[in-house]
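Protocol check, entry for the methods section draft. Step 1: assemble the input record (protein sequence plus ligand SMILES). Step 2: submit for complex structure prediction. Step 3: store the structure tokens unaltered in the notebook. Ligand used here: zinc ion. Step 1 record:
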Amino acid sequence: MPDLGEKIKRLSMELTRIASIVGTTGEIRAAGYIYEYLKKVNYFVQNPGNLQLKDLKNDPLNRKYIMAFLEGKKTSPNTILLLGHIDTVGVDDYGDLKEYATEPEILKSMLSKKSFDEEIKSDLKSDNWIFSRGIFDMKTGVASQMVMLEEFSKHLEKLRGNLVFIGVPDEEGNSSGMLSAVQDLAELTKQKGWEFIAAIDTDYMTGQYAGDEKKYVYVGTVGKLLPCFYVYGKETHVGEAFSGLDANLLASELIKEIDLNYDLCDVAGGEATLPPISLHQRDLKAEYSVQTVNAVNLYFNFATHKSQPDEVLEKLKQKAIRAFDNTIKRLNENYKKYCELSGIPFKKLPWQSKVLTFEELYKNVKDEAGNEFEGKFEALIDELLKKGADDREFSLRVVQEVHKHYSDKNPMIIIYFAPPFYPHIFVEGESPREAKLLSAVEEAVEEARAKSKYDIVIKKFYPYISDLSYCGISRNEESIKKLVNNMPAWPKKYSLPVEAIQQINMPVLNIGPYGRDAHKLTERLSQSYSFDTMPFILEKTIERLLN
Ligand SMILES: [Zn+2]
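Step 3, stored output:
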């Protein structure tokens, strides 16, 4: 193949100039541009049915995504998915330079007038770096996939199998582009009798610590859950403080048990996720009064490498029980001291630890109320849907409403999941398909190392949440059931096309361009590596997988 770097650069600059902020019509323009570009490629002129501009399912913005596929001359069911997102995050971070955010040439000189740290200053002076919103995350990645598709379309005789490209919007939002696409992909494989052997994303790649010059290729991806807690205490008047159980105290203990606790790192393939961290903690008392707080809501970002939702639920249940036990112990100790100081008789406080999952709460309430509760519950969901709350808020309200119907009014903690859910993909290399993928990547990277000056490292999990997650999901029905039954927003407010994802289940890769500061106003791409070595690794990996 000819040197593709220049071509990729030109195209990525073009794509960058089409501002396609998530949730705007720019996403439609970007999709249109890519469609028109590919339409001129000879292969798609000859095979117009293999290039499609498809509507997102149930999208109020009427956004579209591109699907294009090449069928190799050497027939084989083996198929590679190239996926990329065509949207970007917003541009408000550019402040007064907002209008130049997607004008790489102008932006650089404008940014040069502002003051930044030494590294950014030196990158602004260097010809190597291109600054712009989207150039790094991930217009360059999309451009390289388009150019690969075009090049491979000229050499179909060499291709044993098929190459499918999708360019999807809304990755920086709710992944609705990818979630629409997986359903069409499942349909396509059924129609054609194809099997996906790998998905290759070309999303951004950066150093893992200050001064890290290594380049990374990832096999597999991190996942994410949003476990939530509804902490229900016992209100009291501040004048009788010990006769209540302060939900704030219980929530604090919960944070202490969970927040950044290394015990909850999910370790697989020698790589650990970051431990969970709280994203929200709020008591649910609306007004000022001398009544103590009786309910608190909190949730955590929980990254996964190998644990399924049911396992995460169980781990967190244990943490919640511990937090509850600790709280009761602490209260009794303080109460005892207080009694001594006040000369009153001490009697152990009545609290007992109680932690339920949402599924258990629902079952208990249904057992008490009888089957008619199901109808009531459905009506309640519909009622809440009309109010149009955010997914997290909606989930909390469902939990609160079900809890209201429960006869047990003692303090308790209820654990549940709120959207979104991003499954992890762990490529262990045990199946022949995974082993082939690993050796293809290793060989391609080895060749790139020999040809270039870069220190390229293969790692197990792409560390940023992305659409790659929806290339696979557990086939364990019990595990999926535990997720669904503990996610109050499922299925009416939020759901995933589980069957379609199970059908396309494939190992994943990320071979990304190199840069710095994705999602910041100093977002920038390094031309070296991104326009030479990265496309080389991409091309060689595809060749090895479809030879
Ligand atoms: Zn991205």
